[in-house]
Task: structure prediction
Amino acid sequence: VVLVNHDFSPVQQVPCTLIRVPSAYEAIASLLQMYDSMRSRPTGIEQPSYIGEGAVIGEAPYVGAFAYIGKGAKIGNDVKIYPQVYIGEGVVIGDHTTIYAGAKIYYGCVIGSGCTIHAGTVIGADGFGFAPNGDNYNKVPQIGNVVIEDNVEIGANACIDRATMGSTRIKGVKLDNLVQIAHNVVVGENTVMAAQCGIAGTTKVGAHCMFGGQVGIAGHLRIEDKTMLAAQSGVTNDIPEGSVFMGAPAFDVSKYRKCYVLFRKLPELYGQLRDLEKEIQTLKSKQ
Result:
């Protein structure tokens, strides 16, 4: 059996059953979700694990061995906390969220409902704040938090820093492995980032954006809604809504492609320039 889009037209006889669907990719995703839902999920509170004073855990939990839940934490219903997870003091986690092994959530952070946080991710570490003081740097205390809203998925070994003041805020976003989000960044709904993206402090990213791998964005910028950034783009200026940028420094993709055509011809153009210089020198010597 093969899933195909409605507009698929075979050019020869196909020796299998074809099922036409609006989107084969979306259909296979739905089938895989159904299959994944059949897997057994762990339940209960394993020992040894630590649950601090005043912590509240909802119905149908799973707390894996060697997990740590700090005092005053509030854990919703059907939350899965895998072994060696650290949940700091006063952390709030919504219903149906899964936190995989070894993730760390620092004090005071908020995780919404329906979120998935993969192994090794750190949420709420200090933002990179240091004030120059002569030949040294004084640390600027980071007293804010991180707010992860509902239905966010964060890949393995990602880092989302706490705000200097206020909140670093992530809304309905899908982040790949090894993504770095700095202090006081805000990322809008349904934005996706591939592996090794990095966003510097206080930058605001809009909704429905798509970033390829290793995109780097400088601090204090505004990336408006529906922006697309090609892999390894380096962004140093604000980007208007609906733009497609690439390059380092990044600029409009159509202009970049034209420039790249010339860039590839530079060796040839340089040779022509050298030939012209020699001809000019020859003409001058004959005068």
